[in-house]
Amino acid sequence: MHDSSRTPVQQAADWIEYVNRHGGARHLKPQAYNLYWYQEYLLDIGAFLLSVTVALLVVIRVAFKFLCKIC
Q1: Domain limits at 51?
Q2: What is the number of structural domains in the chain?
Q3: Fewest Cβ atoms nearer than 10 Å: which of 3, 45, 59, 63?
């Protein structure tokens, strides 16, 4: 680090110029920009959790009805 003839500010400026010359740094952009709208708002996960909850409630209700008929 001490052998470098360039200061950190000069090296940072070189990298900024490099990125500008080559049209940006696509590999550094967050992948969240590539998500679908329903993935961004977690609607797919919400729908899955809602369907599992509804299925569990239906199973519990059917089980209670069955147990009430037996008793």
Answers
A1: 8-70
A2: 1
A3: 3
